[in-house]
Amino acid sequence: MKKKRFLSLIVVAAIGASLLGCGNSASSASVAEGSDEIKASSAGEVIELTNVSYDPTRELYAAYNEVFAKHYQEEFGQTVEVTQSHGGSGKQALEVANGLEADVVTLALEGDVQVVADAGLIDDGFTAEFDVDSSPYTSTIVFLVRSGNPKKIYDWNDLTRKDVGVITPNPKTSGGAMWNYLAAWYYFEQAGQNDSQILDSIKQLYSNVVVLDSGARGATTSFVENKQGDVLIAWENEAFLSLKEYPGEYEIVVPSVSILCQPTVAVVDEVAKKHGTEDVAKEYLSYLYSDEAQQIEAENYYRPSTKSIYDKYVSSTDSNTITEVPADGKWINDNITLTDINHFGGWTKARADHFADGANFDRIYEQ
User: Fold this and answer.
1) What is the CATH number that goes with domain 141-260+319-365?
2) Of 78, 108, 137, 180, which one's alpha carbon is 20 to 30 angstroms from that of 218?
3) What is the pLDDT of residues 139-168, one digit of tens each?
4) For the chain, what is the HEC assignment?
5) 100-143 pLDDT per residue, tens
6) Model's pTM, two decimal places?
7) What percent of the chain has pLDDT over 90?
C-alpha cells in the first residue's frame, strides 16, 4: 500500500531483536499477582506490551493502541506503550512459538494461536477466555478487481479461467490465505462437485496464481502497487482500504459464498507471567469488546461482534459490486452466504486435511 500508510503504523520500537526482550523488568518486579495490585505499581512507570498480530491489522491496532493507552491511564493511572509486530499469521505464530516474546497475540485464526499453545506458551481453553470464542471482530473474503472489472470476475469459478491472473498469499505462511482456500473449496462444494472435482478446480485456480506472497499485505502490494494479476483474493478490510486509498481505481466484488473469518486473540500466558504483564494483557484484549473499540474496528472495516454496532454499518444495497467506500459509512454487505470453520471439522482437522505437509494444498500446488 502507499508509503504514507506504513509511515504512520508502528510508532513504537522497531521489531527485531529488541522484541525478544520486550516487557519491562521493573514492571515485572513491581506488579504482584492479583487484578488489583497493578494499580499499586509506581506512578510514572511505563508498562511495555508486545502485540504480535497478522498483516492486515496494522491500521486497526495503530488506532486501537492510542485509545487503549488513554483508557488504561484513566482507569489505572499508568502509561502503556504497545509494540506491534505484523506479518503472515502462520509465520507470526511460529516466531512466537520459537521465542519471539509476545504478551498477546491477535492472529488470523484459532489454528495459529493453537501453534503457540502447543509450544506450551498459552494455557488450555484460550478460546473461552474472552467473548465470542475470543474473536472480538470478524471478517470475510472478497475479490478486489480493477475499475470496470475488465475480466468480468463475479464468482469463484471465474478464477479458474485461463485468462485470469490471481493474487493470493501462501497458506503455508498466511492465515488469510487459509481462509481464501477454504472459501473457494466451499464454493465448489456448494456447486455440487465431489472432493476429486473440487481438488481439480482448486488446482486450476492456483495454477492461475501470479504471485504467492507470504502474507496478505504483501499480496495487496503485489496487486495494488505492482499492478500484478487481474484479481486479488482479499480480506474484506484490505479491499476497503484499497478503495479508500485509490478512489476510482478498484472495485470490490462480493462472491456468492464465502467464509466467516474469526481472528483469535489470546494472552501468551508464559510470557505475560515472565514480564509481569498478565493484568494489562487481559485488559488489552478485553477492551477490544468495548463500544469504543468496536467502533474503531468497524471504522477499519472489520465486522464488530457487538450487534448494535454491527447493524449501524450494514448496507441496504442488493449489489455485490462496490465501487467506492459508501458515503453513509454502511459498508457491510450481508448479501452473501457464509460458512465457518466448523464446516471443515474445526482447525485441527482443516489443517490436517488441507495444509499439513503432504495434504491437499501440497498435492495441488506442487504437482
Assistant:
1) 3.40.190.10
2) 137
3) 999 999 999 999 999 999 999 999 999 999
4) CCHHHHHCCCCCCCCCHHHHHCCCHHHHHHCCCCCCHHHHCCCCCEEEEEEEECHHHHHHHHHHHHHHHHHHHHHHCCEEEEEEECCCHHHHHHHHHCCCCCCEEEECCHHHHHHHHHCCCCCCCHHHCCHHHHCCEEECEEEEEECCCCCCCCCHHHHHCCCCCEECCCCCCCHHHHHHHHHHHHHHHHCCCCHHHHHHHHHHHHHCEEECCCCHHHHHHHHHCCCCCCEEEEEHHHHHHHHHHCCCCEEEECCCEEECECCEEEECHHHHHHHCCHHHHHHHHHHHHCHHHHHHHHHCCCEECCHHHHHHCECCCCCCEECCCCCCCCCECCCCEEECHHHHCHHHHHHHHHHCCCCHHHHHHCC
5) 999 999 999 999 999 999 999 999 999 999 999 999 999 999 99
6) 0.85
7) 86
Does the pLDDT of residue 44 top 90, yes or no? no
Average pLDDT, the chain: 89
For 256: left if phi > 0, alpha if psi spans -120 to 50, otherwise beta; the answer is alpha
Identify the pLDDT of residue 194.
97
Residues of the chain with CATH 3.40.190.10: 3-138+263-304, 141-260+319-365
